[in-house]
Amino acid sequence: MADVIVKSKTFFARLGALYQHWMDGGEGWGDKSAFAVFHDSTVDDVGSKAGYVQIWLLGWEFPDTLMVGTRTDLYFLTSSRKAKILEPLLEEQKARSDRKPCEPTLHLLRRSKGSGEDDSVNCRTLLQHVKDSLPEGIDTPLLGDIPQAEMKGKLAAAWTAALDESGVATEDVTLPFAWCMAMKDTSELKLVRTAASISSTVLRKHLVPDMEEVIDKEVPTTHADLAARVDALFADPQKISPKLVKGVVDRCYTPIIQSGGEYDLRPSAESNDKNLHFGGAIICAIGAQYRSYSSNVCRTFFINPSSSHQVAYNLLLGVHATCLEAMKPGKKLGDVMRAAKAHIEKENPALLPNFVRNCGFSLGIGYREGKFVLTEKNNREIRAGMVFNLCIGFNNLVAEEAPDGSKARVFAVMVADTVIVGESKAEVITKNAMDAESVSYILEDKVAKSRPVKSQIIAEQAEKMTKSRLRERDADLAKQRHYFCHPSFVVFELPHLLLFVGAMYFCARS
Fold first, then answer.
1. Could you give the C-alpha distances from 112 to 4, 78, 123, 413, 492, in angstroms and in order?
2. Nearest-CA neighbor of 211 among 201, 226, 198?
């Protein structure tokens, strides 16, 4: 961690927001008199919420570091090497004159290398601070913590033993931290936009062209193989963009590609080992992270779309627009799902049973925040600065035009976008075309074994470009005709032009 620097301005701003939320009695704090955040390095927990809190506050993960906060103080128990990284924060706090009333005083406790007894003493000291900080009239402390999988490190063992010995009760404090982290500041939104741009680029410039090539050349390719080919880009992000470097770019999940009548619209879906089917609906999803901030995009592509495909997809686009309209500050998370259902009931109620169980979830550090899922029962408020994965779809639909037993008979449609909630409306930041024309491909009928032609869209775009160029050429010719026939040209410029041409002719002859 030699190159690790904590941005003090960001740290104090977010620490102040956290404590202000606590002092204001924000949702989830209840009667908690203190909190503890511990990220154990031995826990193989992808998506550790304690690690997310450290990234949010400090910009980095600090494994085997214990944070204990009371209403007036914040303590860090960590190694001497990590303590050196945190020391400048304490020094700056002492020198600052603009400290907010709710900002806690920072303290550093250093671990002695290899001394389990030292860890125990430090943990007991921290819990004594928790007890000593109780407000008047409260005799028993309630410590908020962030539950993790079983922890096996030395510091974890010392902390668990000290807690058991102290008799201090603990209660989950994930929700208030989730609230504070859900409303992104300007610097966070910039990172989210970059992550969204990466997702969009990988889908548009890599996954879709690869898919088109497989279809065009009729190469048997499994969904998993195609996904792995795209997934490899994240190991060498400069192939995505020359501006990107290793270490700051990752994927939220292995790309998801589905076709051939078998679809799973859950976030946990995976690309299976069956071949990409050159007919019906193909669902492609990409989730990218930039400096730990997540984004997501998903599009459905159609090969020779039928009227059943068109009806379902047009309805989905209408639901998408309706959801965006409902994603405004002051609305409830449940309003998004209610608006989606109302639109479906109005336009095509027969498809309501096929609609997904929720309309997505909050994004940020980590891929999915379970406290802010867009379900009908979730009545938490939507606030400016929140970021969502708006993800909607219909599954187990039937294309009546396809024969029984055909892989194209059962299909699904799905779209997802990364959405930022602004002061007055929602903004889609994954810039991938989703109109029906842009996601549809027309292949030739395969009598014998005819090769599929390129996307009809590509052909139409080429035709439009040709017509455009012809129009530009005709317009230029019209301008020229207008100029040479204009009276001012005939009266003033034509005689001079004729003299010039005559002189040139005379010179050539002589």
1. 21, 9, 13, 57, 97
2. 226
Q: Is 487 exposed, middle or buried (0-12, 13-18, 19+ CB in 10 A)?
A: exposed
Length of the chain: 510
Q: Tell me the DSSP string of 466-502.
A: HHHHHHHHHHHHHHHHHHHHSHHIIIIIHHHHHHHHH
Question: Which is nearest to 415 in space by CA: 355, 366, 342, 334?
Answer: 355
What gap in Å lies between CA 94 and CA 88, rounded to an integer? 10
- Give residue-wise pLDDT tens across range 165-198: 999 999 999 999 999 999 999 999 999 999 999 9
% of the chain at pLDDT higher than 90: 77
Lowest mean per-residue pLDDT among 16-25, 119-128, 150-159, 434-443: 150-159
What would the two tokens of residue 399 be?
A: 């294309």
**The two structure tokens encoding residue 336:** 């998004």
- Encode pLDDT of 263-283 as tens digits: 999 999 999 999 999 999 999
Q: For residues 379 and 358, give the distance between their C-alpha atoms in angstroms, rounded to a whole number.
A: 13
Beta bridge partners of 387: 420
Is residue 294 predicted with pLDDT exceeding 70? yes
Neighbouring C-alpha atoms within 13 Å toward the C-beta of 65: 23
Strand partners, 106: 74
**pLDDT bracket for residue 132 (50, 70, 90):** very high
Contact 298, 416 (CB under 8 A): yes
- Note whether 372 and 358 are within 8 A (CB): no
**Counting beta carbons within 10 angstroms of the beta carbon of residue 433, is it exposed (0 to 12), middle (13 to 18) or buried (19 or more)?**
exposed
Q: 191 by DSSP, 3-state: which?
A: helix
pTM of the predicted model as reported, rounded to 2 decimal places: 0.85
CA dihedral 394, 252, 419, 301 (to 10 degrees): -40
Q: At 76, give phi and psi (nearest 5°).
A: -115, 125
Of 255, 249, 201, 251, residue with least CA distance to 230: 255
d(CA 424, CA 459): 40
pLDDT score, position 428: 98
**Pairing between β-strand 366-373 and β-strand 360-364 as defined by DSSP bridges:** antiparallel
- Integer angstrom CA distances of residue 363 from 167, 172, 195, 251, 441: 36, 21, 11, 13, 32
pLDDT at residue 415, as a whole number: 98
Question: 174-182 and 8-23 are packed helices; what angle lies between their axes, rounded to 10 degrees?
Answer: 130
**Contact, 171 vs 142, CB < 8 A?**
yes
- Characterise 160 by phi-psi region: left (phi > 0), alpha (psi -120 to 50), beta (else): alpha
Chain centroid to CA 419: how far? 8
**How far apart are the C-alpha atoms of 204 and 208, rounded to whole Å?**
6
Report the alpha-carbon distance of residue 294 to residue 318 in Å, rounded. 26
Give the separation between CA 16 and CA 174, rounded to whole angstroms: 18
Q: What is the DSSP letter of 246?
A: T
